[in-house]
Amino acid sequence: MPWLGVAAVLGLFELLTRTDAISSRHFPPPSEMFAALGDELVTADFWAAVGNTMQGWAIGLAVAAAIAIPVGIVVGSSAVLYRAVRAVIEFLRPIPSVALIPLAVLIWGSGLESKVFLAAFASTWPLLMQTLYGVQDVDPVATDTARSFGLTRPQRLVYVTLPSAVPYIATGVRISAAVALILAVTAELVIGAPGLGREINIARQSEAVDVMYALIAVTGLLGWGVNVLFSRLERRVLHWHPSQRAQVAR
Q1: Rounded to an integer, what distance in angstroms lies between the CA atom of residue 79 and that of residue 240?
Q2: Ranges of H-type helices in the chain
């Protein structure tokens, strides 16, 4: 059914553009977009752009995970520390990452470093908040039971807190993966860092509208693929969790 829905939308769009119900100058038919995409797939420049985009995405997401998960565990484990830094987190979290583009360009220029910074900044906050929620949502009965059995604080963190927080962390990683990809492409569009975003801008400037839409579709497919990949990893890692067992049963 999902594939039938996609085919129906593409067929309707093809019909509207072929009959000039929608301007084909600004919205070329899907068949032309797929033809342009086919031409792009056999060029080295296309795959270099995809590689640059995914490189910025992967490094940005890795930096975000390296910061957000340990900080979330430490801060979430201490009520005093959480109250102390909550105001700072709530101040930084709503700042749009695109507002930091001038700062990134000023410090690192228009290369990979700026793209990684923007992707890491944007994707840190969903993962940090999910980690905080996961650590704070530990069943107090489980914590008291572990304490009564003589488990030390590090042992309670490993055997009680982390297993309870892993589902939240996995969800945060999946959300942050999509956010990091969005910011990587945005950085390429705005500051001209190498990648699909810059290629989209070049196609727009040269009025190659079919190529532009083909590359936009590629970014969407990459986002869909990233979400599918992390969803499957989440199901595999959390096969023991009740929510995942319920999905398998359905």
Answers
A1: 29
A2: 2-18, 30-41, 44-76, 79-92, 101-108, 112-136, 140-148, 153-156, 162-191, 196-205, 209-237, 242-249
23, two tokens: 């301007």
- The CATH number that domain 48-249 falls under is 1.10.3720.10
**Could you read off the pLDDT of 94-145 as tens digits, one per residue?**
888 889 999 999 999 888 999 999 999 999 999 999 999 988 888 788 877 8
**Residue 109, helix vs strand vs coil:** coil
Q: Which residues contact 21 (CB under 8 A, 6 or more apart)?
A: 15
Question: CA 229 to CA 64: how far, in whole Å?
Answer: 18
Q: How far is CA 24 from the centre of its chain?
A: 32
Question: 31 vs 17, 28, 121, 131, 223, CA distance in Å?
Answer: 10, 8, 38, 44, 22
Do residues 238 and 229 lie in contact, with contact meaning Cβ atoms separated by under 8 Å? no
Nearest to 68 by CA among 119, 131, 114: 131
Sign of CA dihedral 198, 201, 203, 205: negative
CA distances, 40 to each of 34, 161, 165, 214, 235 (Å): 10, 48, 43, 9, 34
Q: Please state the pTM of the whole predicted model.
A: 0.86
Distance CA(133)–CA(222), nearest Å, equals: 29
Burial call 168-177: b when 16+ CB within 10 Å, e when fewer: bbbbbbbbbb
Domain ranges (residues) in the chain: 48-249
